[in-house]
Design a protein that fits this description.
mainly beta; four-stranded antiparallel β-sheet; 3 helices; 21 strands
Length: 264
């Protein structure tokens, strides 16, 4: 069956000050144009159950806030962890500083303070965007013993999770980076991420101006073909006046179809 080789799947976009004013950067760049390329962490397909309209999203690997092409001082301070969520039409830049509300401003001046989640339309911010998943053949592993065998053979694994929620069929594909296996007791359990998990609760959907805003970063764990548990990255209070972005919210999804695929 067909799956993705995530290590060879990429997301590339451009920033060009001569074509579009930037809405996602923290400082004036040395050169007016740049093309960042980032490997993919996960993909998400949302298919509307009635209209069958499908939207494909990607999650990029994380990077750190940087000054590009400078002779020194490449790391921005205060520094942020940064990743990108995108479809062909929407994007969202997710940044995490040491604490929420750090107050780093957007560049050019006048755009205000940079939010932790910065969504928008691709056409308004990036002159170009390319999503290039590398498709390969894989073998569907049908039993725990087959998963154990593929793990000990050091075959790359991809997990596929499917369920219905909020009027959509949800499909999440992601590489299995961490997995527990046991040949004696015939079990496995994943512990891997990050991935994109949609939140279709009425409050969240109502607050979102773009569909991409309903998506959260999460890690998954499962040892069953029919359910999984997730830990979700959310604002988390750790002191009287201190919030951080942390994986602290838990969610279990039942009536799920979990598949494990080994790359050939």
């Amino acid at each position: 069956m067909e799956t993705l080789d995530f290590g060879r799947s990429f997301f590339t976009f451009s920033i060009d000050l001569d074509k579009k004013p930037p809405k996602t950067i923290s400082a004036k760049p040395r050169y007016p144009s740049n093309w960042p390329r980032v490997v993919l962490e996960a993909t998400l397909q949302l298919t509307h159950l009635k209209t069958k309209k499908r939207t494909d999203y990607i999650l990029s690997a994380s990077c750190k806030a940087e000054n590009v092409a400078e002779p020194k001082g490449l790391w921005m301070s205060p520094n942020a962890d940064c990743c990108f969520v995108a479809s062909k039409d929407e994007f969202m830049v997710i940044k995490s500083w040491a604490r929420r509300g750090t107050g780093v401003k957007l560049w050019p001046p006048g755009q205000g303070v940079q939010p932790e989640r910065n969504p928008g339309w691709v056409k308004d911010s990036w002159p170009s965007l390319s999503i290039d998943p590398h498709k390969v053949d894989g073998d569907l592993l049908k039993t725990p013993d087959e998963v154990v065998e593929a793990t000990f053979a050091n075959r790359p694994l991809v997990a596929r999770m499917e369920y219905d929620d909020g009027g959509y069929h949800v499909r999440i594909d992601h590489p299995v980076k961490t997995i527990n296996v046991n040949a004696k007791y015939h079990y496995f359990q994943t512990d891997t991420g990050p991935l994109l998990l949609p939140d279709f609760t009425p409050k969240r959907v109502k607050a979102a101006k773009l569909q991409i805003e309903t998506l959260d970063l999460a890690f998954e764990a499962y040892n069953s073909p029919t359910w999984a548990e997730f830990v979700i990255n959310v604002p988390t209070k750790v002191g009287p006046d201190l919030e951080v972005d942390h994986y602290s919210k838990f969610r279990r999804i039942d009536r799920m179809k979990n598949s494990m695929i080994a790359l050939r």
